[in-house]
């Protein structure tokens, strides 16, 4: 979708927007199901990046205890517990700038992925930047989805992080898609951005080809010690509006309620489900941040008549839409494969 289309949709009266989003949701999703995902930090803190919202950056004093890569046996215990509690996707995150083929840490991650992939859940990882070879190795090891958020608009991105670029994010996403993995890609609200920034972020995501399989919408949880530790909490109605516009812009993607749910009432979460959210991070912790308790989530789902979605570990990545150009190549050595208006200055 174009920015103009997204702007028009977003600025409808609230109930008109929800009505449109619900109609789109019902057209593409049946069964009143919600995907339950568990997110585990397998390597915490000590990251060299300077993302202004993140407690895991080594540049900030947040009180977070640095932890080395978790032994495989501990990861498997957490994965088995997640499966027993109803999660159908197991996501593993590591606080690295990226991974490189042939290194010990990457070989360890591949070994972990191979064993987790045997448990019958979908396997998602977020490991920072990927090259083409690393993406292929992860796919072959059993990864079904790679998470790499674009966070905000291309224009606002340099205000958030300086140790990598927006184009670097797109490059990794392209590598993951080329390797045959599904892409989980969304953003964070509350980074000091404008509504226009939020919609420009969604414009970029909706023009991926193929579009993301899932889109997490996070609300910043301000962490003392980070540059954004004093940012205001995102308004619930603004959050639900973004859920609704995301559902309309990318109808076939799972729209995931992610960080920040602890600041949402049960009623606000119900509005988000009605607006098209059909996936949540499930469990008491998200990497380093708090999350609603699992029993609270299950009670809310029951009260709303919603049920956990079954796992699909054999899930295939979304197919490329031949009627639309590919997402930006973001490589100076190649001609860009998108229309100029869609490159956001990438190529």
Task: Output the keywords.
single chain; 347 residues; alpha/beta; TIM Barrel; ten-stranded parallel sheet; two-stranded antiparallel sheet; 10 helices; globular; disordered C terminus
Task: Provide structural commentary.
The chain is 34% helix and 14% strand. With 347 residues, the chain is α/β, with parallel strands linked by helices. Strands 1, 2, 3, 4, 5, 6, 7, 8, 9 and 12 form a 10-stranded parallel sheet that branches. A two-stranded antiparallel ribbon has the order 10-11. β2, α4 (104-116) and β3 form a beta-alpha-beta unit. Mean pLDDT is 87; it is low at 329-347.
- N-to-C series of helices and strands: HHEHEHEHEHEEHEHEHEEEHE
Strand content: 5-15%
Largest sheet, described in full? Answer: 10 strands, parallel
Write down the CATH topology: TIM Barrel
Q: Could you tell me the mean pLDDT?
A: 87
Determine the number of helices (DSSP H or I, runs of at least 4 residues).
10
Text of the CATH class? Alpha Beta
CA gyration radius, whole angstroms:
19 Å
Based on helices, strands and strand pairing, what is the structural class?
alpha/beta
Helix content range: 25-40%
* CATH-derived architecture: Alpha-Beta Barrel
Low-confidence stretches: 329-347
Shape: globular
CATH superfamily: Aldolase class I
What's the number of structural domains? 1
